[in-house]
Amino acid sequence: MAEKRNAVVLLSGGLDSATTLAIAISQGYAAHALSFKYGQRHQVEIEAATKVAQALGASKHLTVEIDLAAIGGSALTDKIAVPKNRDERTMASEIPVTYVPARNTIFLSFAVAWAEVISAQDIFIGVNALDYSGYPDCRPEYIDAFERMANLATRAGVEGRSHLRIHTPLIKLAKSEIVRTGLGLGVDYSLTHSCYDPTADGLACGACDSCLLRLKGFAEAGARDPLIYAQS
């Protein structure tokens, strides 16, 4: 039996990243899940990531602590109100205040470092360019540029021992398609957490952009979202 290829999978604990982890594992990779405690106000997602990694059978799960709250500039890391009850047109009209400056660049840089150490040539990230077109670091052109940079910036790449690939299996899928994909792969979405502004006891608010898009995705997929929401 051939040895599985290592891959690094960015895992936030949300719907998209859980589905991405399931996809990587279904493709035969030994998935090394990578999460970040970065000063986000919704740190309940770290607990969700741990549960998801265990349930799906990640080969390893590493949580790295960094402090993006020291920089601020986002509703996820600073004292800025999280937008609520917005329609899709408003969500897509501008880069939202929930954008964390350079977050995916920082996360992918850690992923590249770990990939080089474990001799992995594949990195998976659950970015999506349809439901969140406002995030500049979720676009295909950004991913392509980062992949080129990564192969210029690593010893393995320069020496020609490996060529890093950034996989974005969800980038062109609607949220409903992501839900159906995950359900087909056995993802237990009750373990995930998507809310940007959870209550003190960890309930999803049901009104932030992330909650609304998640609920819409389940509804359009004809499936029930197993999470309990503070606002229905």
Number of E strands: 5
Q: State the end-to-end distance.
A: 49 Å
CATH architecture: 3-Layer(aba) Sandwich
Strand order of the largest sheet: 3-2-1-4-5
* Radius of gyration of CA atoms, rounded to a whole number: 17 Å
The run of helices and strands is EHEHEHHEHHEHH
Number of domains: 1
Structural class: alpha/beta
CATH superfamily: HUPs
Query: What's the assembly state of these chains?
Result: single chain
Unreliable stretches, pLDDT < 50, 5 or more residues?
Answer: none
Helicity, in percent?
25-40%
Mean pLDDT: 94
How many helical stretches?
8
Question: What is the overall shape?
Answer: globular
CATH class assignment:
Alpha Beta
What portion of the residues fall into strands of 2 or more residues?
A: 5-15%
Topology:
Elements: E1 6-10, H1 15-26, E2 30-37, H2 44-56, E3 60-65, H3 88-91, H4 103-117, E4 122-124, H5 140-153, H6 155-158, E5 165-167, H7 175-184, H8 209-221
Parallel strand pairs: 1-2, 1-4, 2-3, 4-5
Helix pairs in contact: 1-2, 1-7, 7-8
Overall description:
With 232 residues, this protein is α/β, with parallel strands linked by helices. It has one domain: Rossmann fold, CATH 3.40.50. The protein is 37% helix and 11% strand. It has eight helices and five strands; from the N terminus they run βαβαβααβααβαα. It has helices at 15-26, 44-56, 88-91, 103-117, 140-153, 155-158, 175-184, 209-221; strands at 6-10, 30-37, 60-65, 122-124, 165-167. Strands 3-2-1-4-5 form a five-stranded parallel β-sheet, sandwiched between helices. Strand 1, helix 1 (15-26) and strand 2 form a beta-alpha-beta unit. Helix 1 packs parallel to helix 2, helix 1 packs across helix 7 and helix 7 packs across helix 8. It is globular. The N and C termini lie far apart (49 Å). The relative contact order is 0.17.
